[in-house]
Amino acid sequence: MPQPPTRELPAHRPGTGPLAPYRRLFALPGTRAFTLGNLLARLPSGMFSVSAVVMIASERGSYALAGAVTATGLVATALVAPLVARLTDRHGQARVAVPAAALAVLGSLSLVLCMRFDAPDWTLFAAYAATATTPNTGGMSRARWARLLRDDPAALHTANSFEQAADELCFMLGPVLAAFLCTSVFPEAGTLTGALLLMTGVLIFVAQRSTEPPARGRAAVSRSPLRTRGMPPLVAVCLATGAVFGSMEVVTIAFADARGQQSAAGLVLALQAAGSCAAGLLFGALRPTGPDGRRLPRCVAAMTSLLVLPLLAASLTGSLVVLAGALLVAGMATAPTMITTMALVQRRTPEGRLNEGMTLAVTGLLGGIAGGSAAGGWLAEHVSATAGYAAPVTAAAVALVLARAAARVPLPSGSRSPH
């Protein structure tokens, strides 16, 4: 299928400040509208699990049940999300995202009804598993940017940086909003609000047809991204990086709880996300030198080094305030790592499978978050919360080894957006 002409960014005006690259991005027709829809649809990703835990724990009185239900949803997402992405590449974003979001919303509504009418516990697992069809609008948005800016690697770097900052923003605001709604309004409010935001955001997003990548069809779709040389190591990097996130979250909650300050854990974790968000926006305004493959190990090395700070803060001071500052600084290496990883995923994904490639990376992150949460929780319970901060450092060190291995794999010929 012939590709439409690449949109040209408005000419750069010198002296317009560090936000100039972002202003140029959103001067492209349709980009503001699809970004608005994307943000609305992506915010519930940080709301659903917290909302489910608070709702189930408050109504059924069991955190174990709440954790098991959300873990089941995570496993279901890891299995279903790549299939939804593959269908998206084959049939187009609009044709797949709307019914997929509708099924996820029905799953959320079913969960609320099961809670309201005191249905058996097994129905909670089935209802929450249905939310696994939630479309990965973050990956779809990156696919749109990759199409619009395929001949402008500097602008694509800025767009990828913005998307990573948006990820951090949604995962920072989502849990806070969910906790507020569930505790201040009524227990089901977080789930219902997330479902409304998801459906509204997806409808706004897919309405912007001019920026949507063309559907490839069954015959035109190439081989699976996982069978492409260099992709498995990148997915493994995402898995290890996800373990950093998962272990850090659980251990920080345990650390705050051990000091009788569990209510402050959300704010402390939000500071880490804020540091990553700010670093992502700054990274997007810069023009890093060298190929992404060589840059990735350096970014992961910086992340590994900075993650030692929370371990030192927890073990040497025991202060939650000092820990918050250490997490703020440590978070600043996260966004550059993820931006560079996603850029490499884009370049190694075969033509016509970009949504699937991006979703595989996200699935790796989710799997790592689940494993990291289990490891961090085990350390916090059987050793100490302070010792638990060794888990994210170890996961980051594993990610560094994997990143070095990924860097040694040459990019496929004709890869997109070379730096």
Question: What's the topology here?
Answer:
Layout: H1 20-25, H2 31-42, H3 48-60, H4 63-91, H5 93-116, H6 121-129, H7 137-148, H8 153-184, H9 189-206, H10 217-220, H11 231-258, H12 265-285, H13 292-306, H14 308-316, H15 320-330, H16 334-348, H17 354-382, H18 385-388, H19 390-407
Helix pairs in contact: 2-9, 3-4, 3-8, 3-9, 4-5, 4-6, 4-17, 5-6, 5-9, 7-8, 7-17, 8-9, 8-12, 8-16, 11-12, 11-16, 11-17, 11-19, 12-15, 12-16, 13-16, 13-19, 14-15
Transmembrane segments: 64-84, 96-115, 192-210, 231-256, 262-284, 296-314, 320-345, 357-380, 386-407
InterPro entries: MFS, MFS_trans_sf
GO molecular function: transmembrane transporter activity
Short recap of the structure:
GO terms for molecular function: transmembrane transporter activity. InterPro entries: MFS, MFS_trans_sf. Helices cover 74% and strands 0% of the residues.
What are the salient characteristics of this protein?
globular; transmembrane helix; Growth Hormone, Chain: A; 419 residues; 19 helices; mainly alpha; disordered C terminus; MFS_trans_sf; 74% helix; disordered N terminus; MFS; 2 domains; transmembrane transporter activity
Your description of this structure?
The protein has helices at residues 20-25, 31-42, 48-60, 63-91, 93-116, 121-129, 137-148, 153-184, 189-206, 217-220, 231-258, 265-285, 292-306, 308-316, 320-330, 334-348, 354-382, 385-388, 390-407. Helix content is 74%, strand content 0%. It is an all-alpha fold. The longest helix has 32 residues, at 153-184. This is Transporter. It holds the Pfam family MFS_1. Keywords: Membrane, Transmembrane, Transmembrane helix. The chain crosses the membrane at residues 64-84, 96-115, 192-210, 231-256, 262-284, 296-314, 320-345, 357-380, 386-407.
